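Now for our specimen.

. . .
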Amino acid sequence: MITVTISEERSDGLVRRIVRSHDKEVWWDIKGANEILPPPLDLHDMAATCFIFHAMSKGEDLHIAGPVSNSLLENLEDLVASWVNYCPHLYKKIRISADEEVSDLSRTNPAHTTNKAISAFSGGLDASFTAWRHHNKRVGRKTRNIFAGVLIQGFDIPLSEMRAFETSAASATQTLQSIGIPLATVQTNWKNEVCTNWEMEFGNGVSTCLMNWLGAVDTALIGSDMDYRRLVYPWGGSPMTYGMLSNNGFKVVYDGGEFARTEKVEGISDWQLGLTNLRVCWAGPHTGKNCGVCEKCTRTKLNFLAVGVPLPPSLPGVPSLYAISKLRTTNEQQIALLNDIVEMATSRKINGPWLQALKFAIYKNKLFLRVAIIRFMRRRWWQFKKGIIALPNFLHKRALTLERTFKTDAHQTTS
């Protein structure tokens, strides 16, 4: 069993929280104005979400040495059941427990948190769309007052890249200030310490960072990376997984899933500073700005072209036909996002050589993905065949060993 504890240290403009097990120590340094820092630690829910995937990967039960909301524990049982079925090769069924299970609504859902949200804010398209639409109250009954935006270091920007993070933080601060939202920063070693598969667990990492604000807000907003029409499972960020990382007083929301990524470009086209400071790059050099040539930078430029919106200052230069045609994806999610661009451009009657180059890139990547899957299956089959052939040999050798042992024992007995 993995038993974890959580503690915190507070000073002016800084809260440090640490979750410890017998061999792991995960920390979060949260910085910002005192009025937007997390409230004093009460429920230990984030200790549970921090270690849940790590415990599943080890196949060890998880115990939280402190109070945890009963509603979160119920949801985590569903999370375990779903991910064990999604990825039985990665995760195993475990049990979760706590020293104290809390059902008291005054602790799990205090009245002062109503309609207030904490929002993940990387400066990217999804995060910018979420901030802009809630600021302009374009979300109907789901509109929330954003208490603060949160920029995280230790995920796409490594902890070692301080200059890149400071550049990103300066841009994010300027962007959010234009709509009256303050920025808090979180630095964490969660990814380095307990993340076992980033593509499957990144949403858990982000939601755990936001859960630092449990008791201050009732909602955590994470911009959707796929629209509902193109959801692919298993994947680390999804409305189902986020719901299972929530409790009855802190709802983690997959925000904007009704909009495709290209539609989100239109959604922020009237936010000039948001476009100027847009940061989508994670694969290029860690500068805190866009490299302009990686798959995601190129794809985001095509999002703009597909709806006839001029490229923003943060992503200058229309990509060449060669750059588009040689786009390389690594998973089905990226192919789905490229298909979104083609479908949106077609529906808007926008055409051009770039669109044909993109169609070629999609066809090529689908082919590569199928070949990769076939090769993987062939390797597995060959390993399986080798196992079947090796098994009789193993049994024959084992029988000979036992026979020799028996003869030796018999000889010693008669002697």
Q: What stands out?
A: Confidence is low (pLDDT under 50) at residues 409-415. Residues 2-255 form one domain. The beta strands are 2-11, 14-20, 25-31, 62-69, 96-102, 116-120, 145-153, 183-188, 219-223, 251-255.
